[in-house]
Design goal:
Number of helices of chain B: 3
Oligomer: heterodimer
Low-confidence stretches of chain A: none
Largest interface: A-B, 31 and 34 residues
Distance between the termini of chain A: 31 Å
Low-confidence stretches of chain B: 1-48, 51-70
Radius of gyration of chain B: 14 Å
Structural class of chain A: alpha/beta
Largest sheet of chain A: 7 strands, mixed
Mean pLDDT of chain B: 59
Order of helices and strands of chain B: HEEEEEEEEHEH
Strand content of chain B: 15-25%
Number of strands of chain B: 9
Radius of gyration of chain A: 27 Å
Shape of chain B: globular
Amino acid sequence: MLKQFYFNQFEYRRPYKAISENKYRTLLFQFLSILTIALGIAYLNWRWRYSLNLDALWFSVPLVVAETLSFISTVMIIINFWSNSDPEKTPPIHYLSEIEDIQNGKDRPIRIDIFIASYNEDVELVRYSIIDAKKAIYPYDDVHIQIHVLDDGRRDGRDPLKENMKKVAEEENVNYLIREHNQGYKAGNLKNALENTNGDLFVILDADTRVFPEFLINTTGYFRKRKVAWVQTPQWFYDTTAPEKLSSIINSKLLISNKKISRLVDFIFGKVEINEDIFGNEPRLFYDVILRKRNFHNAAFCCGAGSIHRREAVMNHAIKSFVQQIKIFESNLSKSKIDINELHNLKKALLLEQELIPFKFHASEDIYTSMMLHADKENRWESIQHSEVECKMLSTQDVDSWIKQHQRYAEGSLDIAFKDNPLLIKGLSLRQKICYFSTIWSYFAPLWILIFLLCPIAFFFSLSLPVKAYSFDFFKYFLPFQIMNTITIAIGCWGISTRRGDQYYISSFWFMLMAIYSVIRGKKVKFNVTPKDKGFAKSTQHILPHIIIIALSITGILYNVYLILWGHHPVISGFAANTFWCLFNITALSIMIRAAYWKPTEVKEQLI
Amino acid sequence: MINTLLANFAPLRLTAILILNINITTMENKPIPDTKNKSSNESDVYLKNLRLTETLNVNDSKSKIRANELFQMSNDHPADELAGVCIEDVHYYDFKNVQSINNTGLASLIDLTKYLLQKGLKVQFVNVNEKIKEKITALELDKVLQCS
């Protein structure tokens, strides 16, 4: 009998279907994109040259800088979305010669390893992943598929206080791999696995990643193309919160027991549902649009879980990095004046010290390694973002975990920007550079989001305008650009709502700022394992900045209303425009507060 | 001399499979001698072979050796082992019948070189064909892997 978890209630859920390609939609998007960029340039030209309020440059200049930086994001998104190029699907691989040049050697069926990386997750949760991996089907019986649990938590029974992962692996009849340290975190765990296994292709799964039976059938065929280094499948979180009826929430919050009132509330709000995917975990926009469209640029990067790799590609990368490290060290040695014997000893020590590292030892090892493989001028490795969902996984279940996970993504990506900026990496094509830089650039967004959040407040209390006037000229330039921009992005993301994603993007400003600060300070990026269980602590420290901004905004609005009522307000048009932006900001910020205080129904019932 | 020695060592002639995994083990599971602590007259000639088998975890307890490499052997001389010989602290491997090597195989050779270096031994790969040499040079591994 399997242990029951909260996610058992969602087993019935089925994944979304990938958005089908449509060349006319793509053409329309391209046409609108050109218009958007043209209108954006016209708007910014007007903003910089004619609209600055010279009496309030302290306010005016930061806003126009923020708008310009934001426009750069838009341009990069447009380049990212420019076209679709889903690769052709081919049947699964049988023999090694189908994926590698065996040079007149004897052919053999391929070998596939499935790695399930684990650290501290409930072993019974990992059992679910093992069971599903065992259900993976393949049309050729002689293809050897082996499942390995990569336990970085050393739960092999030596510590009676820990669960026994080894026992679970043995019970499920899968291989168990362990190491005595955690060097390199997940990347180190994978390195250890590659040293102890022999698959020609290997699948990376997290402890909670449960593959569908056709995973291998639908993904191995891509490797017929000898340049394909990895295939990433979409990560689908099947446990996102279900919508709740607003009427039920009102009834429970207000403790309404009177049936007539309850029915009235039901009548008024019965059809309104809220709290669906309360943490904004749904990554469809990312996988089905952003990453998938990068197939066109050969810039779709690996995201770890749910990916399948060609061993030869990562080993090639490992050798090259190994040689590179030795060369750097030798070059430093040649500059120093040391005798030949000592030089020899140092070289020997260096060789012994260097390791072959298939995946970069980094908090964002997946994107970092992807970038390096794409930059390999000799091999020109290619990546594929597979369109259909082939596995399911668990999402973060509270704001603390959500922030921890996203902060790691942010810090990892920003760290790459400072250490190995994709714009400066030789070997990447211009389009690849733009796509990778676009990902990193998005983590700098809080710098201008903060300005957008503070501008209305600055206006309310200073009564200074960031533009000369909210005149006809302003709206003549601003509205066409904004409207066209919104339509273009909507066409680009056809079939997917971007509203929740936008709100979380804005709402994440604070911890993303903290990530930037942390990386600038040179703090080492930690690999925090994302908790997969539920913790319902109120996370006030994460939402304090949100509360302050909302409070200041409301106070500002009330203060301005007071001035208008007493006839002392100098620019009512400014009040109207800034109030509109303020309400937009408050809506976006409030979702983080709502998420921080959200509890699932079963917990609420327990508390009652 | 080395080639003659290797050629005359019949039991370890390359004899079996074409594409195989390789493990590193010593003859009769003898541990590799620590030549650092030996005087020169004690440094016996001993044999070491790269075993091209599927078996995993036959590593020396002191050091883990990659167990997943891939070599392409000649059809005429298939093998399940690659012969080696150690003379005066240099370990020689005969690549006469090795047609090609992939990246995983090269990674194994690096590991092997490091492993033996740790024991105070040098490694020399002999009779390496031009194609493999080119690959090694292209990857700038020629300073790490000594081939002739």
